[in-house]
Design a protein that fits this description.
It contains 27 helices and no strands. The chain has about 600 residues and is mainly α.
């Protein structure tokens, strides 16, 4: 078995975990094993010490071959708990008298502990090879956590924090396989997969690999099952069936089967190209990835968003093979197919030095302008009839004006960026696609004459807000805080490289500054006069950032007049005055 890579956090399958443990044990001497046990003993909680010693004295006592669980006892306990839950749900209308509205479980909270214990017993039945018991127990438990009262409340999967429900799902599906006659397995498994699919909507769809790897024992008759499984899935058109079909072909026929599936029906199974390229990458075959990706782009319809994923594989393999021209063309193909902020930055990173980057950003901006003039503002002319909701590979990217603003600014075309933003309202910077929230802070950072790491404090704060909201350009959200933070860092780095290259003549600087001041006055006046209290800090930071730029440019009086005008004009708005005081207090003493 290959060494398990622990450099990246991941959830190991039970099969991989046990094989890794066996590999480590085989390489340990007696003294090393003693040292390992001593280390483990130091981590045992006081309440678990007796159990630890018992396990050392009788390590095989829990072996499934010696102590089978009693089927009736476990199933009877589940039935009893189900009846108790049903009785409690009949009295759901008395909730409000005894429980806070914020209590999502209310009287159902007491069911969490017994439910957790029953899942542990079902897990034990699975471990001991009692497949029929495991099947019936898991099925009853899954049904139980889907019950709800007339108000839609009840103990849910998300409340069982101590239960690994994806693993429970895999154990259930394996038990179904083992207890179903071979000639019925394919249709029964398809029905059960669809049923448990709805159990954990926030989790990826269940895959065959899960119930394969939940045990180190091979599945009986797996070759025959895979043939019947593939034949059955070919009769269905939905995304789930397509994903299970591609997985089955990959397991049974490898890259050869995936290639045949992809190229025989490219419009029906376009994701097979992505699976094929990923499999070739895992096998370490960059030249095959390169040639296959090119073939795929030749046959996939123009405008299909999935082309972006194929082009990304092409770019990665070309980078490994040191073919920069191919990398650049592939990044352009990916951006055109799915114009998002990450792909815009990928495109920029593929070019160097800065003049070449600015040129390709201008080319990207022209493409975005064309997309924005299309109906519905969607990239791609072809939308698959059945889109997989688990990712965005087939979802057309929604282009907005913030994304266009990024492209124009990174292209050093400040005049076009100004024209784009000048048409918009001074409100709505945080949400929507108003480009002013990106363009004005960028201009102020540029006009300060300071490098990104030394911006005045309020200019720096305003710029950070712009970067945070700027990562949402095109309605792009990863759903992963770490990934979003990484994208913001990439965006910040791109601007740090691009802004020093943007040189403006004094008349141009003055015109840009006047526009920023006009927008700042209008935005701050509107926020305060309309009493948008939650945005008072935004108005104060923007005004003080403008003053900081004026101070740095040697126009102290002009900056002071700007702030004094708002202090006098809104002297009765104490909350705003406090925010303004705080913003001015943040400014460096050398600017005051």
């Amino acid at each position: 078995m290959a060494e398990v890579d622990l450099s990246h956090p991941q959830k190991l399958s039970l099969k991989v975990f046990r094989e890794a443990v066996e590999t480590r044990l085989e390489s340990c001497s007696t003294d090393e094993l003693r040292a390992i046990l001593r280390t483990l003993s130091h981590r045992v909680r006081p309440s678990e010490r007796l159990a630890f010693l018992e396990a050392l004295a009788h390590p095989l006592r829990a072996d499934s071959a010696h102590e089978p669980l009693h089927m009736d006892a476990l199933l009877e306990d589940i039935t009893e708990l189900t009846q108790e839950l049903a009785e409690r749900m009949e009295k759901a209308d008395s909730w409000d008298e005894d429980y806070d509205e914020e209590d999502s479980l209310g009287p159902y909270a007491e069911f969490v502990a017994p439910l957790t214990a029953l899942f542990e017993r079902a897990h034990e039945a699975s471990e001991r090879g009692q497949s029929q018991l495991a099947r019936e127990a898991y099925r009853a438990l899954f049904s139980l956590i889907q019950r709800e009262d007339e108000y839609g409340r009840g103990p849910r999967a998300e409340h069982l924090s101590q239960v690994d429900l994806p693993e429970a799902r895999a154990r259930y599906l394996r038990a179904v396989y083992l207890t179903t006659p071979p000639e019925q397995r394919a249709p029964v498994l398809l029905e059960e997969l669809r049923r448990v699919r709805s159990l954990l909507l926030q989790e990826p769809r269940p895959r065959m690999r899960e119930w394969l790897d939940i045990s180190s024992e091979p599945l009986p008759d797996s070759d025959a099952f895979l043939r019947e499984w593939v034949s059955l899935l070919r009769q269905h058109e939905d995304p789930d069936a397509d994903a299970w079909l591609r997985e089955a072909i990959g397991l049974s026929q490898g890259t050869r089967g995936l290639r045949e599936l992809a190229f025989s029906e490219p419009t029906r199974h376009p994701r097979a190209f992505v699976d094929l390229l990923a499999a070739l990458e895992r096998e370490g075959k960059p030249r095959e990835v390169l040639s296959t990706a090119r073939e795929a782009l030749d046959v996939l319809p123009a405008g299909l968003p999935l082309r972006a994923a194929v082009a990304s594989h092409l770019a990665s393999s070309a980078a490994r093979l040191k073919q920069p021209d191919t990398v650049r063309s592939a990044r352009w193909e990916a951006f055109v197919a799915q114009p998002t902020l990450p792909r815009l930055l990928d495109l920029r990173d593929a070019h160097a030095p800065e003049p070449a980057r600015a040129s390709v950003m201008l080319q990207a901006a022209r493409h975005l302008e064309g997309v924005l003039h299309q109906p519905r503002q969607l990239s791609g002319s072809l939308v698959a009839p059945s889109v997989d909701v688990e990712d965005d590979l087939e979802t057309p990217a929604r282009v907005d004006r913030r994304l266009l603003a990024h492209a124009l600014l990174l292209a050093h075309d400040w005049e076009a960026a100004h024209a784009l933003a000048a048409r918009d309202s001074a409100l709505g910077w945080t949400y929507g696609d108003n480009p002013q929230g990106t363009v004005v802070p960028c201009f102020l950072a540029l006009l300060s004459g300071q490098p990104p790491g030394k911006l005045p404090r309020n200019v720096a704060r305003l710029w950070q807000w712009a970067l945070e909201t700027g990562t949402q350009a095109g309605d792009w959200y990863s759903g992963d805080d770490r990934q979003d933070a990484a994208l913001q860092k990439r965006l910040e780095k791109a601007y740090a490289e691009a802004l020093p290259e943007l040189l403006l003549e004094p008349p141009e600087q003055e015109r840009m500054l006047e526009w920023c001041l006009e927008v700042a006055r209008k935005r701050a006046s509107t926020i305060v006069s309309r009493k948008h209290r939650r945005s008072y800090d935004k108005a104060a930071v923007l005004l003080t950032a403008c003053a900081e730029v004026l101070w740095l440019r040697g126009e102290e009086g002009r900056g002071n007049v700007l702030l004094a005008g708002f202090r006098e004009g809104f002297r009765r708005h104490r909350a705003f005055q406090a925010e303004l005081d705080e913003a001015v207090g943040r400014s460096s003493p050398r600017l005051l």
